[in-house]
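Following up on my earlier thread - several people asked me to post the actual chain instead of describing it. Fair enough. Here it is, all 146 residues.
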Amino acid sequence: MPLELHEVKTAGEFAEVIQVQADAFDVPMSVSSRLFYPVLDQGPTAREDAIAGLVCRQWYVHCIDPTSRWLKVIDTERGGKVVAGAQWLIVDTYAEKAPSIDPFWLPEGEKREFARKIFDQWADMRHDRKPHLGKSAILVLGSSRS
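Reply from S.P.:
Thanks for posting it. Predicted structure:
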């Protein structure tokens, strides 16, 4: 399985990486995945719709965050299939407080407030930090799903 590492440059590439994220964190189901892309109904496209929303939100955040770098690993024997990805934050100056994320995609109520508090904590962790590298996400498909 020859693997290659590439930086993600386009929205199309990004969608492939986020699909890997969804597949990797759904089996077994990760509670944190439901913060980012809750499946809110039972329709036949509910999961795909939730992932499409996640792709749009994360691509937007990536594009406005100058520290964000997404990488992908492709399997060249399988036509360039994305099998892993990672987001690194490359902070080369003192970081100002990152804006908190409003989890507008979650219904109003306790779950939304819980998610807001988690996102506030993540924003606080980036405040007044010296230059550093930070890993935001690493995702790999298991052998049974790839």
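The chain has a mean pLDDT of 82. That should answer part of your original question.
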